[in-house]
Amino acid sequence: MKEEVPIAEKLAKEQREISVSQFFTKNKHLLGFDNPRKALSTTVKELVDNSLDATEEINILPEIIVEIKQLNDTRFIVTVEDNGPGIVKEQIPKIFAKLLYGSKFFKMAQARGQQGLGVSSSVLYGQLTTGKSAVITSKISRNKPAHYYELQIDTKKNEPNVIKDMIIEWDKDHGTKVKIELEGFYQKGKQSVDEYLKQTAIVNPHLNLIYINPEKYKLEFPRVTKELPKKSKEIKPHPYGVELGVLMQMLQDTKATTLQSFLQNDFCRVSAKVAKEICKKAGIYEKSRPKRIAREEVENLLKAIKETRIIAPPTDCLSPIGEELTLKGLKKEINADFYTTVTRPPSVYRGFPFQIETGIAFGGDIPKDEQIKLLRFANKVPLQYQQSACAITKSVINTAWRNYGLSQSRGALPIGPVILLVHIASVWVPFTSESKEAIAHYPEIIKEIKLALQDIGRKLVVYIRKHIKSKEQKEKIDLFEKYIPELAYSLSKLTNHEKDEIESKLKKLLKKELPTLEAENGAKE
Amino acid sequence: MVQKNKQIDKLRELGEKVIKDIDRNKNPSITIPIRALSNVIFNEKTKTIELGNKNALRYFFNVAHSKKFLQTVEIASILKKELLETDKHEHLRGVFYIAKRTIHGTNVNIVDEQTESDKVIEDLEVITGLSREQLHVSANKMGSMVGNIVLIDSGDSIDCSKLGKGGYSVPSITDELVFKKINAKYVLYMEKAAVFERLNEDKFWIKNNCILVTSQGQTTRGIRRLLQRLAEEEKLPIYVLCDGDVYGAYIYSVVKYGSIALAHASERLTIPSVKYVGITMDDVIKYDLKKHLIKLDEKDLARIKQVSQYDWFKNNKEWQKQFKMMKEFNGKVEIQALSAKGISFISENYLPNKIKNKEFLD
Predict the structure, then answer these.
(1) A525/B contact by beta carbon, under 8 A
(2) Residue A387 lies in a domain
(3) Are residues A330 and A384 located together in one domain of the fold?
């Protein structure tokens, strides 16, 4: 009998390292590159988001230029240039040509990007579809030279591959310019690049944006305020927001020497008293060394945290747009009759602070008999896909818009001439997937969105009532003015009184009766 | 012409009242008695359904009323100017077309559907206390008559014994017919034209010396007025033959006591002396018709419940027994079911026997 090879050994031969490109190809949809059209808009989006984060970082008014050049039916060059702080030479290759490299992932602060996946995945997508390098130019100050890089990603090692590295002249004090060639598809409409930029302009009224589209047409989105958004602050994590794996990692990485000091120093809102209480509940000695706490003990620790009352995290770390600036943003990009905005006070879900803002534009050019247009934003970034999977959409649908002057069928968005903006700002926005297109359904978040919608709904209905009331009043006068000659004619036939005399008397009577018509309206015979 | 003047005056009065409101700087209104079950009274003494005294006000300066107000005045003026003053008659449909015109500067018509003008004409009847016929408005002719009766219709002498299968087509206004010669013992009125044809072919009216009258379905006003006049002026007994169901019972009650919609005209239309000859639920047993019963549906049961509670049926023990039996049998029976006993069973056996033995319901 022939000796058999154990299955485990067979399997071992099949097991090997997965390259990032293979991973990427299999998971394109998770990162927003499902199809050529979306790939183009995701690339623009990642670059613009980064530029906005960068300028915000150094408190300057952003000047961004976006250009999409069409080479043929399916090939494009996307260029995004900003006036941000620039990137130090050594960092450039890693930031653009290494996946999962970034600073924001480890920070508890409100930012557009979070995972360090965005830009490098665009670079990789361009490389996989065209074979071309990404071209980066960056300058950090007037006195320093501009660095020019042509980069590829070594897809086996997930390391940058520098094709060209040189110093060039750049007539700019500081900033970064990124050029990526890729396979894509350009289309206008609902989920287009154009729409994304327009929405970005609404929620970033301090942004000056120039956009040259594939038709070589230059669109300007001018700045309407010099007021910079409040800078978001970094905060330490709150114990309620921590998960097992993260907690274990934190215990390993901490500089603290005792469990109690770890809890007090590495988290927010943990006082000595609270830290001791957690240790006691977990049954772990408070002076234990964090690095030596066993896995089972970490589980107990996590359970103890959940059972301990800890005050909510500070919320001053958030950077909402604000009611006034949201209003300005809506007014500059949308032609409507009425605008209103609401910014809710900050709230907390699972230890993460967040804040909901909403705005409405009503009437004007907005179509009357269609479902309202919902604009969703997370940390000032437009969410263009997966509308139906999003907690924002769910909250809008579950709000009784009939109370607020719009018609609505069950389980659907309301109908009316409305563009509704909903923005969630948070140090950690819970998305349903890595492509960051839909907000996860946390009850605390849904509740806050609904409260915001109710607030703004009340403002809307006041306007609608006034607006429609005066319109109805006019229609009523109109109706009676048309009926009066007819009645006068019929009455003169019936009674032999003069038609003109009856008519003029009825017209006088109409003026007198008009105020009481309101009250009588709806009274049945 | 004296009578016409009275009608013209009544309509003008309505207009003058509106003018008076306008002159007094008041929101013009028209008072209309309510025509619904809630404003209908069954007068136990006279055995007729009468209109109560609840009124509704229709205002011109009221968004919900203004169009109806305009319709009311416009149609009143049409009846006065186009019909009464020129001594012409017009059909309900014709009045609708005269009134149907577009209001200047709008795309709104004064009336869009005939039902709107029909309702306004009924309103005008209750407002003026005049009947539709007196206002020179006629309705569909839906009835026939045969028998030993000679009458004068618009100057023409008509012998109803010489009109073949169809019989005399009863006009919608029967007030002005003159009865010239009558040789009959009673009048048999039936809801079904098919039964009328059967009895006419069998020469039932010759053999039994009677007059046969029918109108398809609900009894028209012309027929009701004709039957009333035959009963009151000629003292002829009137017998009603209907299907054995709740709808037949209601048809009979309309002829006898009046209807809710036309409660205002009861005086001119009801015939308290009328008797119901069949079909009854007792006939179903006696003539062994059980296998020809049609099963009651939910609508039938609901209607039985409703009709049996009307004031004019509520205290009628015989009819309450009929309704109870309908429910027990869970069925209804058509007159034509008698054909199962032989095609002429109804004319040779059923009717002569029932009438001879006075097997009637009141």
Answers:
(1) yes
(2) yes
(3) yes
Question: What percentage of chain A has pLDDT greater than the value 90?
Answer: 58
Nearest to B73 among A476, A494, A520 (CB): A494
Say if A201 falls within a structural domain: yes
Could you tell me the residue ranges of all domains in chain B? 2-138, 144-356
A-chain CB neighbours of B65 within 8 Å are 525
- At A155, which CATH number? 3.30.565.10
Residue B247 known to be catalytic:
no
In this complex, do A495 and B12 lie within 8 Å of one another by their Cβ atoms?
Answer: yes
**B267-320 pLDDT, tens per residue?**
788 999 999 998 999 999 999 999 999 999 989 999 999 999 998 999 899 999
pTM of the complete model: 0.57
Q: For residue A14, is it within any domain?
A: no
Total beta-carbon pairs less than 8 A apart between chain A and chain B: 93
A368 and A433 part of one domain: yes
- Contact at CB, A509 and B69, closer than 8 angstroms: no
Share of chain B above pLDDT 90, in %: 67
Interface check for A485 against chain B (CB to CB < 8 A): the answer is yes
Interface with A, mutate which of B23, B60, B84 (most A CBs under 10 A):
B60
CATH number belonging to domain B144-356:
3.40.1360.10
Q: Are both A288 and A195 inside the same structural domain?
A: no
Quick one: pLDDT band at residue A113, thresholds 50, 70, 90?
low
Domain co-membership, A177 together with A30: yes
On whether both A297 and A329 belong to a single domain, the answer is no
Residue A233 lies in a domain: no
Whether residue B69 and residue A517 make contact (CB cut-off 8 A), yes or no, is no
Q: A196 is in which domain, residue-wise?
A: 20-221
Residues of B in contact with A493 (CB under 8 A): 77, 80-81
Chain B residues near residue A494 by CB distance under 8 angstroms: 11-12, 14-15, 73, 76-77, 80-81
Domain count across chain A: 4
φ and ψ at A199, to 5 degrees? -65, -35
Q: Give yes or no for residue B347 having a pLDDT over 60.
A: yes
Is residue A263 located within the same domain as residue A347? no
Q: Which of A495, A510, A524 sits opposite B19 (nearest CB)?
A: A495
ipTM score: 0.75
Domain B2-138 has CATH 1.20.1250.20: no
